[in-house]
Amino acid sequence: MLPNTGKLAGCTVFITGASRGIGKAIALKAAKDGANIVIAAKTAQAHPKLPGTIYTAAEEIKAAGGKALPCIVDVRDEEQISSAVEKAVEKFGGIDILVNNASAISLTNTLETPTKKVDLMMNVNTRGTYLTSKACIPYLKKSKIAHILNLSPPLNLNPLWFKQHCAYTIAKYGMSMCVLGMAEEFKGEIAVNALWPKTGAVPELKEEKTQPPPKPRSGAVEETFRIVKDSLSDDVVKATQAIYQFELSGEDGGTWFLDLKSKGGNVGYGEPSDQADVVMSMSTDDFVKMFSGKLKPTMAFMSGKLKIKGNMALAIKLEKLMNQMNSKL
Asked: What's the pLDDT score for residue 218?
């Protein structure tokens, strides 16, 4: 078998949160180039709804052409980080690249974010990134291609980015500030950068009048709304007090609404009689997946599959309602 001569052949890449998602995607790309991958994540046992563990990721990395070292690491635990770094250096001889990908998310406003979630986001995102960087830096300094890459956003102080999810933005900006500080501190020794995948989920500043779409065909969307309608009650309406409008693209698409303000609630095709509090735009496939529990609204929003205009707090209320309906859909 010929040796791998890719750009990262023989390099050791330490990736937090690499058992699934973007972390694993980066790991697999580096593995194709022949890199040694340290999978530093806390998923040792399969989650019923989220596939992937550090061990299944290790098998995929080996199959892609790289070497793998799975390590159980909760980035909130400094001892687990240090232990994984020591194992990586012992097995591969050093560390060339650190990818701080592990992250916790809750797109909730100030009054709806429990302290437990605030602590989780601060400790995983900001503190975890800082501690993992600190543990890897002595070894990165010895590498000729030393890099730290944080999966975090550009530092934009427009209040728009803080308004609906202040705690999350602070925690992610903490990661970005690590980039800013460490890039300057280790200038000439370690390149420190941030990567923020484009999602298209940019908050809208103005309402746009939509054109009435063609009459929809019957199908999965209509069936979903029928089941939703059957699930409505005065209690649900009283607890929600919001009107939702859905702009759906694809088969059975068009404009639909879910009225959880008027007595008993209502759903239907077309625009609601009163102005919607929240307008959600997505494909019909993603809409059906979302209401059946196969796609989390939070993840759909962050990946750009779902665009939201209006009151984010009311959008989050709908997510809670979906969780109650999943058993019926």
From this structure: 44
